[in-house]
């Protein structure tokens, strides 16, 4: 009996010494610049997210959404601030949902952020944060920025951004055009690839679309980093078949939309280029991609 009691004491002591996971409710400050946190909290999950953002719930779910925490701040004589904290399950999904609609990203708050007309958005760690105050006032702008900074201080950061981003050659890259996704629904954002998942895009891969500034042209680049080469090889064959491009490489081919297409398979990475200027320009950009792919460490 004494032995059993001793084990229980040791167990209780061990539990007491274990670090507690911070609750999302602890992230929200009680007040900021005169705006006071309302006591009511709203929580939404995958099965009822549509009740809060009807028409956009599928977007978040496609990025791995897990849970939404919504809190509201009020100040007399000022518009209400709505704070939405999305638990996206991981940093890749949090970055992806942020980048999905980015227009002028910066790094003032969180790991990437953007402020446009009373809306502050940022991502950090596994969380995507949206802070809205409409109509915007000079006071509310300051409050939104301070609230964002204070939330970012509480939210754990991710060790790094998605690895596949390092595959994009930086020269003349339009940063605001970057789209990161792990669901094939977004593969047609800039060019139509297919209505089906011919690239086998899923949770185990990292897919990127981006544009480059080349004068009057804005060529589109696709990069997909797969879990293993066998999957990448099958996806590459499907992509080549779709655009009538030889799997062993060669000259760029003209697609139905009058853009020139070229693609390459390197290690476990598939890359493709759509360029409106001509075959030579498409192959030149593809060559730049091949250099970063060759240097990529598995």
Characterization of the model:
With 298 residues, the protein is α+β, with helices and mostly antiparallel strands. It folds into 2 domains: 24-154, 3-Layer(aba) Sandwich (Protein Transport Mog1p, Chain A); 163-295, TM1622-like (Protein Transport Mog1p, Chain A, 3-Layer(aba) Sandwich), CATH 3.40.1000.20. Helices cover 27% and strands 27% of the residues. It contains 6 helices and 14 strands. The protein has helices at 2-17, 57-62, 91-99, 138-154, 229-242, 279-295; strands at residues 31-32, 35-37, 42-45, 67-74, 81-87, 112-116, 119-124, 127-133, 173-181, 206-212, 220-225, 253-254, 260-266, 269-275. The strands form 2 sheets. Strands 1, 2, 3, 4, 5, 6, 7 and 8 form an 8-stranded antiparallel sheet that branches. The protein has a 6-stranded antiparallel sheet with strand order 9-10-11-14-13-12, with helices on both faces. β13 (260-266) and β14 (269-275) form a beta hairpin.
């Amino acid at each position: 009996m004494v032995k059993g009691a001793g084990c229980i004491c040791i167990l209780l002591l061990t539990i007491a010494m274990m670090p507690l996971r911070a609750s999302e409710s602890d992230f929200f400050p009680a007040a900021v610049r005169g705006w006071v946190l309302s006591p009511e909290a709203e929580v939404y999950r995958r099965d009822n997210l549509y009740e809060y953002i009807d028409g956009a719930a599928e977007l978040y779910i496609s990025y791995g959404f897990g849970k939404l925490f919504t809190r509201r701040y009020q100040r007399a004589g000022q518009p209400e601030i709505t704070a939405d904290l999305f638990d996206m399950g991981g940093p890749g999904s949090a970055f992806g949902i942020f980048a999905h609609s980015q227009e002028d990203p910066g790094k003032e708050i969180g790991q990437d952020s953007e402020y446009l007309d009373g809306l502050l958005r940022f991502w950090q760690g596994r969380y995507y944060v949206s802070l809205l105050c409409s109509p915007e006032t000079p006071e509310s702008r300051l409050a939104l920025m301070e609230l964002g900074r204070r939330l970012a201080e509480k939210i754990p950061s991710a060790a790094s951004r998605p690895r596949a981003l390092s595959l994009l050659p930086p020269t003349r890259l339009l940063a605001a055009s970057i789209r990161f996704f792990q669901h094939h629904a977004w593969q047609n954002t800039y060019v139509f690839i297919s209505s089906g998942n011919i690239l086998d895009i899923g949770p185990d891969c990292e897919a990127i679309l981006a544009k480059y500034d080349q004068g009057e042209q804005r060529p589109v680049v696709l990069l997909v980093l797969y879990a293993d080469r066998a999957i990448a090889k099958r996806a590459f064959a499907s992509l080549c078949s779709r655009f009538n491009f030889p799997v062993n490489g060669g000259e760029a081919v003209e697609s139905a939309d009058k853009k020139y297409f070229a693609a390459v398979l390197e290690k476990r990475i598939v890359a493709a280029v759509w360029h409106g200027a001509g075959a030579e320009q498409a192959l030149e950009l593809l060559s730049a991609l091949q250099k970063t792919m060759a240097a990529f460490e598995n």
